[in-house]
Structures are given as C-alpha cells and as structure tokens.
Amino acid sequence: MVLDLISGTQLASVLSGSSDYLLIDCRSFLVFNKSRIRNAVNIRCNSILRRRSRGEMSLDNVIVCAEMRRLFLDGKLPMIIMYDENGDADHKEQTFITSSPSTCHAIWIKTDYFFISGGFKLFQVDFPELCEGLENTYSFSAEGSGGETPCTPTPIYDQGSPVQILPHLYLGSAHHAAQENELAALGITAVLNASSTCENHFANRFRYKRIPVEDNGQADISSWFDGAIAFINEEQRKGGKVFVHCLAGISRSATICIAYLITCKGVSLNDAFRYVKSRRNVISPNFNFMGQLSSLEAKL
Q: Start and end of every Tyrosine-protein phosphatase domain (predicted)?
C-alpha cells in the first residue's frame, strides 16, 4: 500500500469538519493509552499477528473497533489516515494491505490513504487541543480522611480509588467494592467479583457476576475468562462500566483485566501486564495465573 502524506494542519481540518474517516494509531497499546489524537483507534499489531502474517497484514484483521471495521469493509470510509510516534516510518513501504482479497479491489477504489507527516509527536505540539489521554487515577492520598491518622493504617491495596484500565473497565479491591457512592460517581454499572468470599454489597444498584476462584497455585482461573469477558463486553455495549475486584485487587482481579486486554485488545501478555501495572502498581498475579495467561496468549 502506498500512502500520501498529510500535514498536521490538514489533519486538524479533517478532525474539525468531517466524520467520514478512520484515524489509525500504529503505536503500541501502552503508548496509545497514555495519549493519542482525538477519535483515533489503536490497531492490534502485536508480535503474534506480525509473526503469523508472514509479511502483509489485512487492515480488517487489525482494526479493533467493530463498528469501524464494518464501515471499512462496506467501503464507507473515503479516507483512512495512519500515524506513528515520530512520522519517520517509510510511508511508501507499509506492511498493510487494504483488506481480504475478496473486498480489496472495491475498497481501493473508494478509499484514500494518508500518513501524518511528523507523526503524533509533532501533531501533539501543534494541536494539543485535538489530543487526549487517560489520566492515571491510582492514588495513595488520604483525601476525605479529615486529616486524622487512623489507629490502624489502611493497607496499601485499599488506598486511593478504583483505577481506570479502559473507559469501561475499572480495577480495585474489596474495600473499593464496598464504597457505593464512589462507584456510582465513576459511572460503574456492574461489578465482577473475582472471589468466593467477598460480599456483593449493592445488588439493588449494580449488576453483579461472581467468579468463585481461589488465589492459589491450583485454581483454574482460565475457565472463567470467557464468561468474564462476555460480561464486560455486554456491559460496554449497553454503555455501562464494569468494576473488577477480588479481596486485595492484586492477583485474581488483575488476572481478569490482563486476560481481557490480551483477548479484546490483541496486546501481548507482557504489554498487558505492564499496562495494568502502570495503572495499579500493587498488582501481582500469582505464578499459576501468569502461566494460564501465557497459555491464553499462545492460543490467540
């Protein structure tokens, strides 16, 4: 595929006046979630896909957003724009083809392809108002404590607030799961309880799903991955948000969030772990769970 260059100024004009485009962020999942151009979608171009593709990859296989993928395959996106970090990739030698062979010719006729000159780095400097990113909400502040020092220090895993993994996915501990007003303020509509003992406190307000798995070296948490992912996706489709917790928000619930990223965002286990760790730095799935996550990655 040969791409024409588009300047930051031209892209700003497109973002301000048109909706008939697909803006693709070709950077890693971790970098994308720190900051990105408004309305951009990340492609799941991880090492597994690159290895299996043996060269060219079809765009319809790497566009994560289902709605955008459908519009693309229907030939209803007259403009596709791609960018990397610095704009220094060889835009004349891209490793993507437009789509599967059966639809390739029709989409080529209807769609123009562009690559942003200067990449995200330059565009962010020139047009910061057209960029966005997720704020790290993990905090150890004692806000709301009235300045008093408790007799028994709060465990570090219960401090702060639930953290945002994705716009529709939050992670925390059982302590956070007992804070009804805080969950409501975050827009939480459903709770995934990854324990057999933690209470479902507010069944009249939130939708609950329990995963009764223990945090040990024998538990099979992978058998619950499909159900957990379906629960999260169903809530997202309804416009809701899911809070995932176990007792401490360290092992079981973190494993579920990592499995979700691997399955639904197409990122590697390493990148998914690092990303969740960057949001909630106390996470540490046990060795058994890490092995099951590795097996999940190998299957995809």
A: 161-300
- What are 28-77's pLDDT values in tens digits? 888 888 889 988 888 755 554 455 545 555 666 666 667 777 777 777 77
Residue 101 — φ and ψ, nearest 5°?
-55, -35
**4-132 and 163-299 agree in CATH topology:** no
Which residue's entry shows tokens 């990340």? 42
The answer to whether 246 is a known catalytic residue is yes
Catalytic residue among 45, 198, 246, 257: 246
pLDDT at 133: 77
Q: Where are the domains of the chain?
A: 4-132, 163-299
Examine the pLDDT at 150 and tell me if it is beyond 60: no
Q: What is the dihedral of CA 115, 268, 47, 5, to 10 degrees?
A: 0
Dump pLDDT digits (tens) for 235-276.
Answer: 999 999 999 999 999 999 999 999 999 999 989 999 999 999
pTM for this one?
A: 0.70
Q: What homologous superfamily is domain 163-299 in, according to CATH?
A: Protein tyrosine phosphatase superfamily (3.90.190.10)
* DSSP sequence for 18-66: --SEEEEE-S-HHHHHH-EETT-EEB---HHHHHHHTS-EEHHHHB--H
Q: Which CATH number fits domain 4-132: 3.40.250.10, 3.40.630.30, 3.40.50.2000, 3.40.50.720?
A: 3.40.250.10
How high is the pLDDT of residue 178? 96
Dihedral (Cα; 30, 216, 228, 261), 10-degree rounding: 10
Name the H helices within the chain: 8-17, 29-34, 47-53, 59-62, 66-73, 101-110, 119-126, 174-177, 180-185, 225-237, 252-265, 269-279, 287-299
**18-32, 137-151, 188-202, 263-277: range with highest mean pLDDT:** 188-202
Which residue is it, tokens 């999942």? 29
